[in-house]
Structure formats: structure tokens, C-alpha cells
Amino acid sequence: MNELLNSVDILLVEDDPGDVLMTREALEHHKVHNTLHVVSDGVEAMQFVRKQAPYEDVPRPGLILLDLNLPRKNGQEVLAELKGDPELRAIPVVILTTSEAEEDILRSYNLHANAYITKPVDFDRFVQVVRQIDDFFLTVVKLPR
């Protein structure tokens, strides 16, 4: 019962259907009671968080899982927009990407990402990483409402 009271809407910004599926399965595998919303590019991500058409009735996400390699507007641009907007900057953003490039890591933290995680390719390891994100950001850390 307590878990449901603390459920969080998670926005996954990911264009790879396989990674979306693995994230969904990892959250279900972990019996996470949070709602996962998915958009496939950076433009949709900003429409979602700003509740612009077609996302007028969506809840505000309590956590954003953001890929860097996105069509139309990349993850770095989305992160800069989110953290530059006083209405949105308090939403924690976890970069979840395949890039291990030092410049991507540094730039993400300079743009105030809350964490930078390289996606494991192995499903079991991916599940473990999603579980750790869940444990930390949705159980341990106190998030703004």
C-alpha cells in the first residue's frame, strides 16, 4: 500500500524500441508500481513536460530517464532546456545512454544531470541497473512533488 502512495510517473525518452522494451520489462520484473511514460524524441519530451499537445492531460514526471542519441532534438539539448527552465529544473534527470564518451559525461553533468549511466547490453545487468535507479531515486532520495 505504501509503495502505491509513493508511486512516481517516470518519463523515458528513448527512440530504440528494444531499449524501451527492456526498460519496461526491468520495471515490471522489479514489481515497480511507478507509471512509465515513453516518448521517442527530444521534441516530444519537451511537449510532454510542458503539457503541450498532444500531452495536455499527462502528469508531471517525477523522474526523467533520458537517452542522449535522439532524433529531432538530442538529449543534451533536452537536458539544457529542462535545467534552464525554472518550472522544470527540479525534475531529476538520469542520463541513460550507450555513450561512454568523456565529453558526453562531462557536458551532461555541466548541464546539471542528476546521474549519468551507461546502458548495459546484457538484459540481466540492465535489469539490475534499472532496479538500482529505482531503489535510489524512488526509494532512498526524497523527490520534489
Query: Biggest sheet, strands in spatial order?
Result: 2-1-3-4-5
Q: How many β-strand runs?
A: 5
Strand percentage lies at 15-25%
- Could you say what the CATH architecture is? 3-Layer(aba) Sandwich
Shape: globular
CATH homology superfamily name: Response regulator
The ordered H/E elements are: HEHEHEHEHEH
Predict the CATH topology.
Rossmann fold
Q: How many helices does DSSP assign?
A: 6
Please identify the structural class as seen in this structure.
Answer: alpha/beta
Computed CA radius of gyration, to the nearest angstrom: 14 Å
Report the uncertain regions.
Answer: 1-5
- CA distance, first residue to last residue: 19 Å
Major β-sheet annotation? 5 strands, parallel
Estimated helix fraction? 40-55%
Kindly state the mean pLDDT as a whole number?
Answer: 87
CATH class: Alpha Beta
Q: Structurally, how many domains make up the residues? A: 1
Question: Can you characterise this structure?
Answer:
By secondary structure, the chain is an alpha/beta fold. The protein has a single domain, classed as Rossmann fold (3-Layer(aba) Sandwich), CATH 3.40.50. It contains 6 helices and 5 strands. The protein has helices at about 1-5, 15-30, 40-50, 75-85, 100-110, 125-140; strands at about 10-15, 35-40, 65, 95, 115-120. The chain has a 5-stranded parallel beta sheet, with helices on both faces. Strand 4 (about 95), helix 5 and strand 5 form a beta-alpha-beta unit. Helix 2 packs across helix 6 (about 125-140).
